[in-house]
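I am still getting used to backbone structure tokens and would like to learn alongside you. To get us started, please write out a protein record for me. Start from the sequence, derive the backbone structure tokens from it, and show both lines together. Once you have written the record down, we can walk along the chain together:
***
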Amino acid sequence: MQKEYAIIAIVATAVVCFVAGYVLGTSNVKEKAPEVATATTEGAAEGGNAAPGGKMGGAAGPDSDVLPVGESATKGNANAAVTIVEFSEFQCPFCSRVLPTVNQIMEKYPNDVRIVFKHNPLSFHKDAPLASEAAMAAGEQGKFWEYHDILFKNQKALKRPELEKYAEQLGLDMAKFKAALDQGKFKEQIKKDQALASKGGARGTPNFFVNGIKVVGAKPFPEFQKIIDGELAAAKGSNYAARVKANYKKDAPAANKPGRPPRDDKTIYKVELQDSPVKGGKDALVTIVEFSDFQCPFCGRVNPTLAQIQKEYGDKVRISFKQLPLPFHKDAFLAAEAALAAGEQGKFWEYHDILFQNQKALKRPDLEKYAEQLQLNMGKFKAALDSNKFKKQVEQEMAMARKVGARGTPHFFVNGKRLSGAQPFPKFKEAVEDALKRAKPLTDKGMKGDALYAEIMKTAVAEFKAPAGAKRGAPPQDNKVYDVPVGNSPVKGNPNAKVAIVEFSDFQCPFCSRVNPTMDALQKKYGDKIKIAFKHQPLPFHKDAFLAAEASLAAHEQGKFWEYHDILFQNQKALKRPELEKYAEQLGLNMAKFKAALDSNKFKKQVEEDQALARKVGANGTPTLFVNGKKLVGAQPAPAFEKLIDEALK
């Protein structure tokens, strides 16, 4: 999960879903994608001026030839001094999370800002293209924004029948609506939007241009506010086209992160098959080696693309699967072992498919249930897991991945040439065609299958070499020591410990929950030598996070912060007031005192003080941690923390 890894480990990717900074609030989560591309932190007000068909409502002055509003849906004052062009898509979770911020912008600047919506459905969101067409079909009948809101409220229900149901709810002319979808009436417009996005470097979603100034990802309101206020001052006497001309900068090729392979890496790497499962023709001319993780969502999304490649090329292509369970996917390692245990009984690929169909159910009982479904010898299967029979193989494949620079998932090598992330079919086809061309001198001699691949591997590079001075798999080290006082924050561990880890976190942030096992492991390893302090940084697009932060401090007042903290992270999708009270009751708290604290906002000031401190020390996303003042951004693996802890203990 390139995006995810990059983000979380900063690690991505994204799907962009920090992947890469996988901290919410940054601009890159790649798998490589902001969701491919971006996963950034996480809209629009009711009403506004949208002409039928989603046309612009009459902009002041000429339209921009670089970033045209064109026929796109708009809302807000047509003569506004500031135009925000949003590239978005209806299946992207980060796009939906930015809606409250967009609403806040419209509320604060009702006459000064207009919003323009452009479509950029990502390749791995299979329902997004049709949803975009449907939104434009609704716009044709003057209901774009109403339909837009319904789609974002129902992101998991975007099939054709649901799209028609939503149209009926809005009282649209159904014959006209259906005809637009049947004829693909708006496909070309969507392609134009995507081409414009690509031209402007808006490779993932959401992406914004504020009078031509690029804003990547679901940034919080203050970041938009700063740019808008600057433009309101600068735009006096100007117009949209002129401001875009002044502000717009053509995207430069993305720089490579330190220690990462270049994006156009043409190196042929030595990635030997060894004992890894293989499917495809034994005389294949192209071998695709995949490093993957059964809990990585981007890995699951690339499987249909691989199936399409096999269908198109038949026996010319074979696929080998190698295990790369990422450290923040707590069930992935055991799932990898279980898959190899199934492979021992000749059922690897069948088991592989079941795991990817059930990525949220990978505990030991689930793994055994899937083995039973395939009628495996359960005694043999359980014994393999109990004895960790395949642990060494998984670890060897992880080591191989590190050696060749495959630091996130999914990661592929096509006859040894790197292809990273859940790329669309054309990218794989291009890679396969290139591999066939490169192999032609050998295939003309009759080489194929294992013999051909072995010959290619003879001259392959054994190890990815990071540029001099770059630390592989890690962001540039911030060596500054920040002043981050523990203050009155909840603390666990020895109060007099030599090392203090201060964590800025958010109970609704999925990446924050993933760092908890790492914190537990560190406490187990270092014991009384470390203490952990928790500070609150509820992000603005997590609407339940602030109240959850207050509730946790109300529990802390009664001596139950960490118990309540654990319950909240176990129930991140259920953080409304009734649930918060239910968790308090489960812990036997004094409910009158607890409720009074919430009703009076007793701990609001403390949460705001934590947020102010976070801004001061540059903890703009979550989780951000400080080890004796040294910053670590994102859900980093344990070794990153151990390095700083060991240094502090010297």
